[in-house]
Amino acid sequence: MYRFLMSRQWVILALITLLLIPTMIRLGIWQMHRYEMRSARNQLVTNALHAKPVPVETISTPGHAVTRTEKYRTVTATGTFEASKEVVVRRRTNDDDEVGFHVLTPFVLTDGKVVLINRGWIPANGAQTAFPKIPAPPSGRTTITGRLMADETTAASGIKDIKGLPDRQIMLINSEEQAKRLHAQVLGGYVEQTAPEAKGGTPEQISDPGKEDAPLNYAYMIQWWLFAAAVPVGYVVLARREARDRREAAAKEQETEQAEPATV
């Protein structure tokens, strides 16, 4: 009754089944790797955000490339803002997806080196060709706290570094480029300021980084492996159903032949 499995239709179905099983297993493994990668990244962010604050100059130096383990690390800096040399970063959004600018202000440390401080977001308020009105930072010597961030690149952010922008406007935050503009020793990376909060709530502070949805990848992993297990089961069920239908059809045909009167 299972000779039909050698038919062209069932051979093709068997080949598809044999192809689907390893494909689904590999997709499940890929989702497992995605889950592990995202979980590790989330843990790095959590560890960095909850680590004891350290002076920024103990982590970063001029030309330093901020690493994955250093990114989001809470740092402090003591010095003076240079508001006259600040620039704005175009096409940045706030938590409500409103388009505006990030305010990037040089911060001169006590040893004369400079660290770039992203003071937060301000609305565009009309045309973006003119330099916007920005609330002044604290004057005199002050201490700020923030998250250490890596230099932005087009490859990492997907943001194109457009040239010929209006004066004091940039697309990407890059310490090396700013060092050339300021003619100063600028620490690698930059700091997203979290304290003290700006008077009047502007610039609007940048929210803590969100966590990636690692459990979703875990669910997809389980789903693909369940599919891989279900495929051969489905093939067997279909084959047994086909065999049963053939047996029933053969039995009915035999009953019909037995019920017909013999011809003389």
- Into how many domains do the coordinates divide? 2
Shape: elongated
Mean of residue pLDDT?
89
Distance between the termini: 34 Å
- By DSSP (H or I, 4+ residues per run), the number of helices equals 4
Gyration radius over CA: 32 Å
Physical arrangement of strands within the biggest beta sheet:
2-4-5-8-6
Given as residue ranges, the uncertain stretches (5+ residues, pLDDT < 50) are none
Annotation, overall tally of beta strands: 8
For the sheet with most strands, the description reads: 5 strands, mixed, barrel
Strand-residue proportion: 15-25%
Structural class: alpha/beta
> What are the secondary-structure elements, in order, as H or E?
HEEEEEEHEHEH
Fraction in helix: 25-40%
Pfam families: SURF1
Protein name: SURF1-like protein
Transmembrane segments: 218-238
Family: Belongs to the SURF1 family.
Describe the structure.
This protein is of the alpha/beta class and 264 residues long. It has two domains: 3-42 and 214-249; 50-201. The chain is built from four helices and eight strands, in the order αββββββαβαβα. The chain has a five-stranded mixed beta barrel with strand order 2-4-5-8-6. A hairpin with a 5-residue loop joins β3 and β4 (99-109). The mean pLDDT is 89. This is SURF1-like protein. Belongs to the SURF1 family. The chain crosses the membrane at residues 218-238.
